[in-house]
Amino acid sequence: MTAQAAGPGKPFLYVVVCAAGVASGVTELIAAAQERDWEVGVLATPLALGFFDTAAVEARTGRVIRSAWRLPGEPRPFPPPDAVAVAPATFNTLNKWAAGISDTLALGTLNEAYGLGVPIGVLPCVGEALAAHPAYAASLRRLRGMGVRFADPYGATGGTDRPVFGWEGVLDLLPQPPGRGSTGRSG
């Protein structure tokens, strides 16, 4: 699969996927983003690659999934992002990101996106026991202070008593693509 340029006038969304069971549904987020006129490229933490159907994601986006740094001289497979959606975002990734650690492509991209002023929305996927850890609360405060926006991923039940991971919630945190009430790239 080769890199593609974003469609004419279409903003580019990076979707960062972390290793959580709900990651198997990431195609729902990609489809919703495409319906809102985003071009989409997926970056995954190395462990996340085993949590979703990579072939289905690549078929849906028409792009390779990035999880490793490119070598010097290799072309950039994605254009610069107009926005970033992190879903699902795990305890590990959120804490490392808040600390400025860039030991994976996904974390390096998140740290750089902040420095470039790119809008970032997050759907955390953190269990109650880990969410109780003081480092997590401190990381959320720091990230919010950096302008990162968070949504409740389990705000809807989908007509059942079981919570449903609300993929589209992260898109609601981001500027809308041109033609849908936005002026385009912000930051």
UniProtKB/TrEMBL annotation:
Domain Flavoprotein: 14-107
Gene3D superfamilies assigned to the protein according to its UniProt record, in alphabetical order: Flavin prenyltransferase-like
Top-level division of the source organism's lineage: Bacteria
InterPro entries noted in UniProt: Flavin_trans-like, Flavoprotein
Transmembrane segments: 12-32
One Pfam family hit: Flavoprotein
Keyword Membrane attached: yes
Keywords carried by this UniProt record: Membrane, Transmembrane, Transmembrane helix
SUPFAM superfamilies in UniProt: Homo-oligomeric flavin-containing Cys decarboxylases, HFCD (SSF52507)
GO molecular function: catalytic activity
Identification of the protein by name: Flavoprotein
Source organism (scientific name): Streptomyces griseoaurantiacus
